[in-house]
Amino acid sequence: MGRYVLLFMFIITGFFTSAQGVKDRIEKAFKLFENDEQLSNAISSFYVIEAESGKVVFDMNSRTGLAGASTQKVITAATAFDVLGKDFKYKTTITRKGDLLFVNGAGDPTLGSDRYGGTKEKLIFQRILDECKKAGLRNIKEFNVRSETEDLIPPGGWINDDLGNYYGAGSQTLNWKENQYDLVFIPGKKSGDTTKIDSIKTTYAFWDQIINHCKTGPAGSGDNAYIYFIPAYEKILVKGTIPAGPERFTIAGSDPWPALSMEKSFYDFAGGFVLDGTNKGVSQDITEVRLMDIYSPSLDSISYWFLKKSINLYGEALIKTIGLQRKNSVETDSGVSAVREFWKEKGIDPNELNIYDGSGLSPLNRLTTHAQVEVLRYARTQPWFNSYFAGFPEYNGMKIKSGTISDVKGFCGYHTSKEGKTYIFSFLVNNYNGKSSSLVAKMFRVLDELK
Predict the structure, then answer these.
(1) Residues pairing with 289 in the sheet
(2) Which of 5, 89, 320, 426 fits as disulfide partner to 369, beta carbons 3.0 to 4.6 Å?
(3) What share of the chain is helix, strand, coil (3-state, %, to 5)?
(4) Cβ proximity of 104 and 91 under 8 Å
(5) How confident is the model at residue 7 (pLDDT cuts 50, 70, 90)?
(6) In which region does residue 90 sit, left (phi positive, over 0), alpha (psi from -120 to 50) or beta (all else)?
(7) H-helix or E-strand containing 409?
(8) Residue 231: its pLDDT value, please?
(9) Where are the domains positioned within the chain?
């Protein structure tokens, strides 16, 4: 009996020593981190708990609201799984009135996307034409995509530096090809040379009215070009640099008129809206009738790409859909309110989720590492967790979601140590100086103490 008691005491002491060791190591590593010159004018928050027990391992400023950038996506995704369900699908309905076709969007962010087998542009258009033929329609007089004017208003706090670029694509009633287009440049031979626009891979006509102030940068300098909308002026301005070296260099922009882009794409695909060159037997029905429905991939697939590739458009679509489900309104503000109320019901103070959008792109967002960890802990207990967890990227040998906006860096997620202990954590830094890559390496050294 004494032998078993000693063994039990040894095991308990081992667990205690291990837990205490992690805490001590993190405290030491974090103190070095905070004293680094990159943090001289910054504020950091780091919160770690044991996943099973909820025991706090480390807490520094966990109730202080900070900009979380794309780490905020873990909150939007978890809310969507619980409110909408992992099998939720968006439904876009095609209706017709005689030989007039109408696309009635429902906020699907995947329509026309190349990420999924069933959402690609040509496949969708061919399905529409096939259904027209089945309905006896021989000619299409008009193809109209319905969109709402209110959709043109971006979420609160989005800045002009972001709005014209691919990651600043907002969600509309009708989204098409993830509301993005490609702008292809011919760089100069050396740094400082002017550039030429080679082609614009979009179908919306006004994009040929581009003011190009983009210059050539040093070889290997990457994409440092930015696209700007010019208020009250149907032109865009491109500034910054693209690297010398390649014959062609492509940057991506956000399409503010995806409905028009879809209309033009369909016109090109369908050959001027004529299916077989005849117009026999077409009745000009007064009543508008359903022709077909187009379903998106299920939420688990949408969430996978939302988290894995940090697609801001998906976050804005999801938060509007959450608002529709909980408050019968597709306004972003309604979705934000619904998210805060949802987590209040789960015990999280709404003041810890002072958010303005669903993606984390707005620099106005303020959230706490405590709230993020509580969301992640809740998610781990839900039947949809495996689908949620599958989307978390892997950085530094850990399953974590990263976040980056100007002078903001964050990581949050899960990690199981070599001893088999699973930790949940959130680590945010605001207003650091110097290079992001240097800061990330120092943040990883702190996170390494969980291994």
Answers:
(1) 96
(2) 426
(3) 40, 25, 35
(4) no
(5) very low
(6) beta
(7) strand 408-416
(8) 80
(9) 17-86+299-450, 91-295
- Residue 449 C-beta-side C-alpha neighbours within 13 Å: 25
Nearest to 348 by CA among 371, 368, 366: 371
Is CATH 3.40.710.10 the right assignment for the domain spanning 17-86+299-450? yes
Helix ranges (DSSP H) in 173-257: none
Q: What H or E segment, with its residue span, contains residue 3? A: helix 2-34
Check whether 416 has a pLDDT greater than 50.
yes
DSSP three-state, residue 22 = helix
Question: Any bridge partners for residue 139, and if so which?
Answer: 274
The dihedral region occupied by 357, where left means phi > 0, alpha psi between -120 and 50, and beta the remainder, is beta
Confidence bin at 8 (pLDDT 50/70/90): very low
Query: Confidence class of residue 55 from pLDDT cuts 50, 70 and 90?
Result: very high
Give 254-298 pLDDT, tens digit per residue.
998 899 899 989 988 987 666 554 555 445 557 999 999 999 999
Tokens 């292809």, located at residue: 184
Whole-number Cα distances in Å, 283 to 49, 103, 137, 270: 67, 20, 9, 21
